[in-house]
Amino acid sequence: MNVRGRVIVTGIGKSGIVARKMTATLTSTGTPALFLHPADAGHGDLGMVTPDDVVLMLSHSGESTELGPIIQYCKRFAIPLIGLTARTQSTVAEAADICILMPEVREACPNMLAPTTSTTLQMAFGDALAMSLMEMRGFSADDFHKFHPMGRLGAQLVKVRELMAAGADVPKVPEDASLLDATIEMTRARLGGTAVVDRGGKLIGAFTDGDLRRAVTGKQNLTDAIGRFMTATPLAVAPDELASEALRLMHERNITLLFVCDKDRLVGALHMHDLLHAGVA
Questions:
Q1: Which pLDDT value is given to residue 213?
Q2: Fewer CB atoms inside 10 Å of the end CB: C or N, the chain?
Q3: Residue 186: how many CA atoms within 13 Å on its side-chain side?
């Protein structure tokens, strides 16, 4: 938590694969980390390790010879070394400034040789470490989204303000508009509806394609006030609401358009197509 630099995670073989995963989880949850391959360390990659860093070394046996150059480097330049091993009398355990002792466990392999149970424990420790640091840092869903802008995870954390239409793209008419005015505005914006606002910009109604179809089935005058046909106090969401929550509301209410309000004042419009296009589900 107090390291000024990065967590340098290293290991060889199956422990190295776990170390890579541990590095990725730490990095994506607010703890800067790098994976250092032991085979490359002695060929120049030790240059990525600085006195501000801490090295986290994974080795079940604690005797992997490939780790030797990294241990020597840490000792020479007083870089904190944390060893994650199951052997108290091993090279890694004795060299480490802090030794995290893992339990001696029977491997699931029928020959009790292939790393299986031991690597599962390493993985669990890495996840626990990352989650503990997340809690200590107060790492939020917003922070998570900054590091995961792509893919399904990123889509589920997108806020309404990132996808909504804003400014002149938001269809709206004043409360004294006519049915014709609302129809023209709805056609211009092509979102399937228009907001109705009072003089202060407060959302007071919504007029949609469905309202228009119901209006034209009767003998209505196009100059009639839109207030006769609009849906009063329509459903709206806040700009900082999750887009996934907005989509849930649309499915729940069987609608395709939501207006976005900041303290009752209209600031945007969100169509279901925009949500689906962005991968929100």
A1: 86
A2: N
A3: 23
Q: Across the strands, what pairs with 207?
A: 194
Output the DSSP codes for 242-265.
BHHHHHHHHHHHT-SEEEEEETTE
Query: How far are the Cα atoms of 59, 62, 70, 95, 134 from residue 75, in angstroms, in the given order?
Result: 18, 16, 9, 8, 29
169 near 274, Cβ under 8 Å? no
Provide the whole-model pTM.
0.61
Buried b (16+ CB within 10 A) or exposed e, 76-88: eeebebbbbbbbe
The token duo for 99 is: 């030794």
Please give the average pLDDT of every successive group of 10 residues along the chain, which has 281 residues: 95 97 94 96 94 97 95 96 96 97 93 93 97 90 66 71 93 94 92 94 93 79 89 92 90 93 94 86 72
Per the annotation, does 273 bind a ligand? no
The torsion angles phi and psi of 178, rounded to 5 degrees, stand at: -95, 170
Alpha helices in the chain (DSSP H): 14-28, 38-41, 68-76, 91-95, 117-137, 141-147, 151-156, 160-163, 179-189, 209-216, 243-253, 272-277
